[in-house]
Amino acid sequence: MIQKERIKKLNNNHLVEGDYVLYWMQASPRSHFNHALEHGINQANSLKKPLLAYFGITNNFLEANKRHYHFLLEGLRETQILLRDRGIKLIIRLCSPPEGVIELAENASMVIADRGYLKIQREWVQKAVSIIQCPFHQVETNVVVPVETASPKDEYSAATLRRKIDKHLDGFLVPLKMRVIQKKSLDLPVDSESLDDLDSLIKRIGVDIDVRPVNKFAGGNSSALIFLNDFLKNKIHKFGERNDPSHDYTSHMSPYLHFGQISPLYIALEVLKTNSIGTSSYLEELIVRRELAMNFVFYNEDHDNLDCLPEWAQKTLNKHRKDNREYTYSFEEFENARTHDPYWNAAQKEMMFTGKMHGYMRMYWGKKIIEWTSDPEEAYDIALALNNKYELDGRDPNGYAGVAWCFGKHDRAWKERDIFGKVRYMNANGLRRKFKINRYVDAVDNIF
After folding, report:
1. Which of 259, 281, 299 is the endpoint of a domain?
2. Boundary residue ending a domain (142, 164, 197)
3. Same domain, yes or no, for 16 and 41?
4. 87 and 165 assigned to the same domain
5. Are residues 247 and 394 located together in one domain of the fold?
6. Which of 116, 200, 309, 392 could join 355 via S-S bond, C-beta 3.0 to 4.6 A?
7. Can you list the alpha helix ranges (DSSP code H) found in 14-146?
């Protein structure tokens, strides 16, 4: 089932006689549980046309580097094969994504696009819509409840969004049927980049190659499913203890969700089948917390700077901006994990070498950057820059929301203290009191 709320007609253009229906596969490059893809198949079948899929690779997407592109391209290579098995040709082009879809749309009867929430993704779509002459539909498939269905505004907290999402959940927690394409596009004479040699392709793309791919996570839906199945079988019953960094009770879905390689709806439906004690906690993270981040970047134009914060947080941080700092570090010292704090250093190293940081440590990591920089603006810039450079799920609504949370977004005022003012504070004593934190440090050291 594809709910009508997921589908938006972005123009009122009439159908034209084209060679194919075009699916601009940009935010959701997967064959599995993809509402945009299935809607494209529906439209192609009704028009008795083949469906052609396209992905545009740009070299200037929000600080992306070799680590990100390698993961992305691994997933695209798998998706290309899976789509071929379904009779759909996926072409890859090195170009500005909107320029590529504009060119291909000249021979299309209709364009279908999936949906991203970042400013650059929305600008791409706006540019394409302003030029393309055939009908243009956008289909939302990277959230369980569509963003504008859930809320019309930037929500204050998870609590305020949760009530709104809960009203719609039953109508959207519905499996998605895979359609069969009636006319194949495999023989269409449309050129595509080869994905046989990813390193060579990345060199041609021309991005930063200093941040290397990671060994722990391989891109693609099949890899995502391996992690998910292991989580459902061995870890979900312990998800209530996920905040303990000395254990690994997380699902590791965030990189795959970021790159659109797995469906959040599919994950939610599989989690519900377990009837585990950890089900409600996991769905809170997957749906409410994750979709709060989508809500944030969609409705808040300042999601990448301090102006995104609520008024109380901005005032209290400004009031304490000149407070004495016992330690201050440069960007390079942070980046190379050269602080006095072994726990912070371990978190930074984990991110640098695995592409992912334990969620609780990510909060501690962000809080300490506030404490060890000269002012809130510098702290915000450093936290975002490091997160975006090394995290596989960096440059993502959850990354922007996570950094903003460290500074008071989606949180409440706490007891006032130096530097932080009323923004929530975290310290090393709390780590030692709650967890066997040295076990986490040792585990990170063993990565090398």
Report:
1. 299
2. 142
3. yes
4. no
5. no
6. 392
7. 35-47, 66-85, 97-105, 119-131
Q: For 69-102, b where at least 16 C-beta lie within 10 A, e where not — what string?
A: bbbbbbbbbbbbebbeebbbbbbbbeebbbbbbb
Residue 206 belongs to some domain of the structure:
no
**Which residues have C-beta within 8 Å of that of residue 160, sequence separation ≥ 6?**
none
Q: Among residues 405, 98, 117, which one has the least CA distance to residue 260? A: 117
Single-letter amino acid code for the residue at 10: L
171 & 292 share domain? yes
What are the strands, taking DSSP E only, across 140-227?
A: none
CB of 374 within 8 A of CB of 331?
no
| Interatomic CA distance for residues 45 and 41, integer angstroms | 6
- 212 in a domain, yes or no? no
Number of folded domains that form the chain: 3
CATH number at residue 95: 3.40.50.620
We report the CATH number of the domain holding residue 248 as 1.25.40.80
Residues 63 and 105 in one domain: yes
Domain of residue 94 covers 1-142
- Do residue 345 and residue 410 come from a single domain? yes
Residue written as tokens 């993502």?
A: 396
Q: Which residues pair with 138 in a beta bridge?
A: 8, 113
**Per-residue pLDDT tens listing for the chain (448 residues):** 799 999 999 999 999 999 999 999 999 999 999 999 999 999 999 999 999 999 999 988 889 999 999 999 999 999 999 999 999 999 999 999 999 999 999 999 999 999 999 999 999 999 999 999 999 999 999 999 999 999 999 999 999 999 999 999 999 999 999 999 999 999 999 999 999 999 999 999 999 999 999 999 999 999 999 999 999 999 999 999 999 999 999 999 999 999 999 999 999 999 999 999 999 999 999 999 999 999 999 999 999 999 999 999 999 999 999 999 999 999 999 999 999 999 999 999 999 999 999 999 999 999 999 999 999 999 999 999 999 999 999 999 999 999 999 999 999 999 999 999 999 999 999 999 999 999 999 999 988 6
Same domain, 148 and 287: yes
Cα–Cα distance measured from residue 114 to residue 141, given in angstroms and rounded to the nearest whole number: 7
Distance of alpha carbon 49 from alpha carbon 31, whole angstroms: 19
Domain match, 50 and 132 both: yes
